[in-house]
Amino acid sequence: MQALANGDVLVGNSNSGEAFEITRAGKIVWRYLNPLRDEKGARGVIRAERYEVERLRPFLESAAGH
C-alpha cells in the first residue's frame, strides 16, 4: 500500500495480480488486473508504485520524440 498525496491509497494485491487506487471513502478510482497467467492459471505477482507526472515527464517527452 502507498499513501498518495491526493489522500487516496494505492494498493497492490500480489495474490490476485492486481493494483488499484482507492479513495478514503472506499471508491475505486482505477484498477489494473495483470493479464498474464502462469501455467496453473494464476496471475503474476506485481509491484505497483505511483509516480507524480513531473517525475515521469522526461520519459514521456523522450517517448513522444521517437
Question: Could you explain the architecture of this structure?
Answer:
Strand 1 (2-3) and strand 2 (9-13) form a beta hairpin. A four-stranded antiparallel β-sheet has the order 1-2-3-4, with no helix packed on it. It is flat, with a radius of gyration of 15 Å. It is of the alpha+beta class. The protein is built from one helix and four strands. The protein has one helix at residues 53-64; strands at residues 2-3, 9-13, 18-22, 28-33. The protein is 18% helix and 27% strand. The protein has a single domain (2-64), classed as Thrombin, subunit H (Beta Barrel).
The rough form would be described as flat
* Number of structurally distinct domains: 1
> Mean pLDDT, rounded to whole units?
88
CATH-defined fold name: Thrombin, subunit H
Q: How many strands, which pairing sense, and closed or not: the largest β-sheet?
A: 4 strands, antiparallel
In DSSP terms (H or I, runs of 4 or more residues), the helix count works out at: 1
Amount of helix: 10-25%
Structural class: alpha+beta
Provide the succession of SSEs. Answer: EEEEH
Strand runs, count:
4
Q: Which stretches are poorly predicted, pLDDT < 50 over at least 5 residues?
A: none
Beta content comes to 25-35%
CATH class: Mainly Beta
Distance between the ends: 34 Å
- Which CATH architecture is right? Beta Barrel
Q: Which strands sit side by side, in order, in the main sheet?
A: 1-2-3-4
Instruction: Give me the Rg, rounded.
Output: 15 Å
